[in-house]
Design a protein that fits this description.
Layout lengths: L7 E4 L8 H15 L6 H20 L5 H15 L6 H15 L9 H8 L4 E6 L3 H10 L8 E4 H4 L6 H10 L7 E5 L2 H10 L3 E5 L12 E2 L10
Parallel strand pairs: 1-2, 1-4, 2-3, 4-5, 5-6
C-alpha cells in the first residue's frame, strides 16, 4: 500500500490541515457580536457553508472575482435567513471576517503528528486557492509554517487549482517532478483530479466520509497517510 518513489508532498491548507469550518464559525461569532448582528449562528452557518462552497467553485472557474465572492456569499446568506443587512454592513463584515479569521487556528486532529512524521522523509509544500494574505497568517499563527519548504497560492500564479499551471508552477519552484510528487487535499475536482491530470499521485482527504470513486486513494483522518507514505 506504500507509494514508492515520492520525494515531495503537497498539501492543500483549508479543510485539509487547517480546520476551516471550526475557525470560520468562531470568526463569525466574533464579528457578529462586534457589529450587533442578531442572528442565530447555527442557522446562519447552515446556509452559509453550502453557499460559500458554491461561490468558491465559481471563483475556481474564473467566473467571479475575489470581491464578488466575499460580498455575495454573505449577501445571499442574509437573504436566506431574512436578515436585513445593507451593503455597508456586508462590506464591513467581509473585511473583518478576513482580518479575524486567522486569529483562530484550530487544526485538524493529527495535523501536527502527521507533519512531524512526514518532515524527515519528504519535502513538504502547500498549494492553495485561498487568499494570499490570509493563508500566510493561517500558517504562521497556527505555527505550522516551518514544516513547509514552499507555499504556492493562486493569487501568486494567477490561476487556481485544478488548472495545471498552478501545479506546474509549484513543482518548478522547488525543482520537483510530477512522478515523484503527491497532492493531498479535500476537494476531488481541485486537488485530486487536478494533480492526477499532470501525472502526480493524489490522496483525497475525505474527512466528511462522502461517497467517492473507489479508484481514488482516500483517507478519513490524516494519520492514515502513514499507510501510504
Amino acid at each position: 500500500m506504500k507509494i514508492e518513489g515520492i520525494k515531495d508532498v503537497f498539501f492543500d491548507l483549508d479543510h485539509t490541515l487547517w480546520d476551516f469550518d471550526k475557525n470560520s464559525a468562531l470568526t463569525f461569532n466574533k464579528i457578529f457580536k462586534m457589529h450587533d448582528v442578531a442572528v442565530d449562528l447555527n442557522e446562519f452557518l447552515s446556509h452559509y457553508e453550502p453557499i460559500n462552497l458554491d461561490y468558491w467553485k465559481l471563483y475556481r472557474e474564473e467566473k467571479i472575482d475575489k470581491e464578488s465572492l466575499r460580498y455575495n456569499r454573505l449577501n445571499d446568506t442574509f437573504k436566506k435567513i431574512s436578515y436585513q443587512a445593507d451593503s455597508k454592513l456586508i462590506n464591513k463584515l467581509s473585511i473583518d471576517y478576513i482580518t479575524y479569521l486567522s486569529s483562530f487556528n484550530h487544526l485538524f486532529d493529527d495535523t501536527l503528528d502527521i507533519l512531524n512524521y512526514l518532515k524527515p522523509k519528504y519535502q513538504l509544500h502547500i498549494i492553495t486557492n485561498g487568499f494570499q494574505e490570509a493563508q500566510d497568517s493561517k500558517l504562521r499563527n497556527s505555527n505550522i509554517h516551518h514544516f513547509f519548504q514552499s507555499v504556492t497560492d493562486s493569487e501568486e500564479v494567477g490561476v487556481k487549482k485544478p488548472n495545471p499551471i498552478i501545479f506546474h508552477h509549484a513543482l518548478n519552484k522547488v525543482n520537483a517532478k510530477p512522478e515523484t510528487s503527491i497532492m493531498i487535499g479535500d476537494n476531488i475536482e481541485a486537488d485530486i483530479l487536478g494533480a492526477l491530470h499532470i501525472g502526480m499521485e493524489a490522496i483525497y482527504f475525505n474527512y466528511l466520509k462522502v461517497c467517492a470513486d473507489h479508484k481514488i486513494k482516500q483517507i478519513n483522518n490524516l494519520n492514515e497517510l502513514k499507510l501510504f507514505l
